[in-house]
Write a structure and sequence with these properties.
19 strands, elongated, alpha+beta, metal ion binding, 2,3-Dihydroxybiphenyl 1,2-Dioxygenase, domain 1, single chain, cytoplasm, 36% helix, tyrosine catabolism
Length: 621
């Protein structure tokens, strides 16, 4: 009877708290607490204490000290006997106490908020995976929301994953293009400049993570088809009962394939299992992964870039409008990762290391992420792929996507294309490319053009992908002839297939356009392998596109190599300059003057453009 009385009183207090009547709720919370103390109802007493603390806190920040005292007084019972939900709630209330009153927390100004956020994050976000396993997404997002705002004002609780997804309906966007169009001048009139406007230091692409339903077979197919050996794993054999992840690497190119195990394997209420998560990717979410694969099929979940400081990159991004996905998490005291939304269900993942020696470490396997074990039995493969040049996204509204990414990163416009540049009278697209200061991280984004005779290939992608996503990945080869010979030899036995080759007339005219750069034998090899060749004043680009790599006409791969136009990055490594969107007409500024290149380019020739229209990038469906 005493339990029922205390519970009813606590329920009334909660009702008044949620309705915003803290003053009316206080007496009920105090009465419930009194009942619990009198009859030794310890766990119910802890819950009543937290409710009382929340009521005091809702009356104003001047009550933060009183609320915090109540929470800390209940901690011994909560941490000793309370369940995960009660413990998580206690940490939420404690965080609210600290964040509600900066002066009470010892923070005198908004600029001093970061140290406090970093102190709080370790105690709070260790529990996120516990809550995910318990299927408590609202608690997860309530915890995350407390650290999203660098000015110490918690943002509204984000929507859980299973409510965040939506079906893409092209009819919703048709007819809206006039309101959202960018004022694009087109390829030939665009004048590039580099204001070096990054808001935080960006080094390079770090890795690409694919979400799939079967990581083993997906990884093996890409390994076999691209010549990228599996170098590390995190799965059941390493103690990971949350997800299977396999890392493929070739040079600086890293592909990670992740698929979920059954969430029942990591039930934290099972006394036979340790009371923590086994995930090596702490931002992994079972329900989000399954929803992603159901809606998009095989696709890119995360585009990871290496930054100087992931905490700073995250807080700076959120302060400038980025939508947070996962706050900074420190792994093994050496790696920090954080995530913000990029477009659709794709996240931009920040990765930083506590020790900069990873840049030149002779064993890069040690510098991926904690929780992965090296794989030495993978079949030795090397087709000559060396790094990711660009990751192209298809979006519904280019103007808002460009404004969003540019706003929180500070990236500058690197190139642009209109329907006249890359389309036909029957179909087309608009495209803008954003780049970091060093122009080694490129983000092209495309939108469909409506009102044409045939449906835009970008619109087709959006329909099959059910929204925005990564359309293709451009991979730099150090020897495209070797790469293509190897890839084509595997096309019919588990590898990747390529788009149809250009007609013979294309290669007969090629000697006139590139005969001073390519030998007759090389031109012959280009024809045999179906390689496209393009030139501008800064070099020659060799390129080819695969067909879509999965069941849906969505994501595909581009292989590129530049002849000439090499530059050194900040670590002294020599790289080919950046390419964009497979056109090859736009490259990075010369290394002697990295901040400015104002030379206008001529349009791609008609024959080259027509061949590109037959590629998956510009296919007309």
């Amino acid at each position: 009877m005493q339990v029922e009385n205390a519970s009813v009183l606590l329920l009334l207090a909660e009702i008044h708290k949620k309705s915003g009547n803290a003053v009316l709720g206080l007496p009920y919370a105090l009465a419930s607490l009194s009942f619990c103390q009198s009859f030794n109802l310890d766990l119910l007493k802890a819950s009543a204490t937290l409710t009382l603390a929340e009521l005091w806190l809702s009356l104003g920040s001047n009550h933060a000290k009183r609320a915090l005292s109540l929470v800390h007084g209940a901690f011994p019972m909560i941490l000793g006997q309370g369940g995960l939900e009660l413990r998580a709630r206690a940490f939420i209330v404690e965080a609210k106490c600290y964040l509600s009153d900066p002066s009470f927390s010892g923070v005198k100004s908004a600029s001093q908020s970061l140290p406090l956020l970093q102190v709080l994050q370790e105690g709070i976000f260790r529990r996120l995976n516990f809550l995910r396993v318990l299927s408590a997404p609202t608690r997860v997002y309530e915890l995350q929301s407390l650290l999203y705002d660098p000015y110490l004002h918690p943002s509204p609780t984000p929507t859980p994953h299973h409510h965040r997804y939506r079906y893409y309906d092209s009819k919703q966007h048709h007819g809206q293009e006039n309101d959202s169009q960018l004022n694009l001048v087109g390829f030939s009139k665009f004048v590039r400049s580099n204001p070096r406007s990054d808001r935080f230091k960006v080094h390079r692409f770090h890795h690409i993570e694919f979400w799939c339903t079967d990581a083993t077979n997906s990884a093996l197919r890409f390994s076999w088809g691209l010549g990228m050996p599996i170098v590390a794993k995190s799965d059941l054999s390493t103690g990971n009962q949350t997800h299977a992840s396999y890392l493929l690497r070739s040079g600086d190119l890293n592909f990670l394939f992740t698929a979920p195990y059954s969430p029942t394997l990591t039930r934290t209420d099972d006394p036979t299992r340790p009371n923590n998560s086994t995930a090596s990717i702490p931002t992994f979410d079972h329900s989000a992964s399954r929803d992603f694969s159901s809606r998009h099929g095989l696709g890119v979940r995360a585009v990871a870039i290496q930054v100087d400081d992931a905490v700073s990159a995250f807080t700076t991004s959120v302060a400038h409008g980025a939508k947070p996905s996962a706050p900074p998490i420190l792994l093994d005291n050496r790696v920090t990762i954080a995530e913000v939304q990029l477009y659709g269900d794709v996240v931009l993942r920040y990765v930083s290391y506590s020790n900069s020696s990873h840049v030149s470490d002779s064993n890069p396997d040690l510098w991926f992420l904690p929780g992965f074990e090296a794989v030495t039995s993978s079949f030795p493969l090397d087709f000559g792929l060396r790094r990711l040049d660009h990751a192209v996204g298809n979006v519904e509204d280019l103007k808002s996507a460009v404004s969003y990414l540019k706003g929180f990163t500070g990236f500058h416009e690197f190139a642009e294309f209109t329907a006249e540049d890359v389309g036909t009278s029957e179909s087309g697209l608009n495209s803008v490319v954003l780049a970091n200061n060093e122009e080694m991280v490129l983000f092209p984004m495309n939108e469909p053009v409506y009102g044409t005779k045939r449906k835009s290939q970008i619109q087709t992608y959006l329909e099959h992908n059910e929204g925005a996503g990564v359309q293709h990945l451009a991979l730099v080869s150090e020897d495209i002839f070797k790469t293509l010979r190897e890839m084509r030899s595997r096309s019919g036995i588990g590898g990747f297939q390529f788009m149809p080759s250009p007609p013979p007339t294309y290669y007969r005219n090629l000697k006139k356009r590139a005969g001073d750069v390519l030998t007759d034998d090389q031109i012959k090899e280009c024809e045999e392998l179906g390689i496209l060749v393009d030139r501008d004043d800064q070099g020659t680009l060799l390129q080819i596109f695969t067909k879509p790599v999965g069941d849906r006409p969505t994501i595909f791969v581009e292989i590129i190599q530049r002849v000439g136009c090499m530059l050194k990055d900040e670590e002294g490594k020599v790289h080919q300059k950046g390419d964009v969107v497979g056109l090859g007409k736009v490259t990075s500024p010369s290394s002697s003057n990295p901040s400015r290149n104002t030379k206008r380019r001529s349009k791609p020739d008609k024959l080259q453009s027509q061949q590109l229209l037959d590629s998956p990038l510009f296919m007309i469906l």
